[in-house]
Amino acid sequence: MESLTQLGIGFANLFTDPINLVFIVVGVFLGTVAGLLPGLGPSTAIALLLPVAMSLDPTHALVMMVSLYLGAEYGGRIAAILLNIPGDPGALMTTLDGYPMAQQGRASTALAISAVASFIGSILAVIGLVFLATPMASVGLAFGPNVYFAVVVMALLLSGTLVGGSVVKGCIAIILGLIVATVGTDLQTGTPRFTFGLSGFLEGIDPIIPIIGVFGIGEVFWNLRSRGSEKTHSVSVKKFVPPRWSELREISWTSLRGSILGFIAGVLPGSGSTLASFFSYSLEKRISKTPEKFGTGTPKGLAAPESANNASVGGSLVPMLTLGIPGSGTTAVLLAYLTMYGLDPGPGFFTKHASMAWAIIASLFISAAVGLVLNLPLAPVFARILEIPRIYLFPAIMVLAFIAAFSLNNSVFDVGLVLVFGLVGYLMRMVNMSPALLVIGVVLGTMLERNLRQGWVLANGSITDMLFQPLVLVFLAIGVLAVVLDLIAKGRRKKKAVVTSPADEEAPRH
């Protein structure tokens, strides 16, 4: 009941200041555009809006940012359905049935079904957030610095295994982020760390800088390398056609299952919408009586990943708002914004800034409804945006990135740093390393160091007294176990591939 009361207060705060509703609509619209344009996405869009956010009231800015995040999950499906190009990695599974539906002349139906499934996922996930927020924040307040240190370590290890690819490369990316977080003057000893004699490094590197570089400039470099000058040709959408009741009834249980899986995946640090959509699609195909229809344009194959995609947004906000742990690359950016505004991300956020916290949660309900209302009738309009040649789009993104970097401290040095991190992000993509993990490492690095030092002091410098506590060992064990199990699973898959490949080569000879 307390959660519902707080939620009611959150809605009251939103409607008391009607400008919040304007920022919600603007956020959802910008998010939809950011999501549908391949290579942009919510992380980049939120980072590029820094100059705007700095001029706004924190509540207005954060309401707009979370609305943009949710809107981007709506938008990601548009390019996936019409172009067979996912607007973000989470929309990859949407292409499997969404694009075939579009090729069959059912593009409008596919867009409508995915919008409804996204709405269901968003609403159910925010309901989960409402009932988990207060209990998790209460638990977090009971954590000492040594337990919090273990929670951060667990989050980093889980991120390294769940983002995908090589665990070793994932850990390297996180370590790079942690190193970036240590740059600057040590606040306790006054000793410069990794400054290389440059005065611009003395105050450290603001997390927003690598975020803009990696997600903004880095993505531009990567997309220019692969398809910068190509023109897009999408399946046309002449007019809005609402989904039939029979189609909505067909996807209802699919959307419910996808929402639950997406919410759980979102809560786990590092998993996010990509794994959420994959798990949901795989489960739906496995339990279906007609699995052969998946991949040919079945509504269930479209609703499963879309409901999971949007549900992962609400899930990823649970650890960010209650524990200060980012559940995805985008929530890492949001966490950096909270820090920039001088707010205390984590359990204290719900006690020190309760009205703002619940206003943000309440705004997600409205954002989900606005996303549905915008995405149903405006599908033909959004489809036209896909026709913008990327050769014009990418320079605009770079200009916005440089403006955002300069506005942070009015420093040309920061602009140069953004360019460097853009190159780092590009090189990481080249070697199949996740740039999002570097950002998570940067954002969590300061928290990790602070709690390590506080825990060390409280334990009188004894590592055993600090770490050999039940809760600390549990969290550390979960993180280590996740890495070990991931390495074992990948080792078995590699061994199986080696065993089966000779047989595949010899088969044609018989």
Automatic annotation (TrEMBL):
InterPro entries: DUF112_TM. Residues 21-439 form the DUF112 domain. The chain crosses the membrane at residues 21-40, 110-133, 139-159, 166-184, 204-224, 259-281, 323-343, 355-379, 391-408, 415-448, 468-488. It comes from the Bacteria. The keyword Amino-acid biosynthesis does not apply. The keyword Cytoplasm does not apply. Signal peptide: none annotated. Keywords: Membrane, Transmembrane, Transmembrane helix. Pfam families: TctA (PF01970). This is Putative tricarboxylic transport membrane protein.
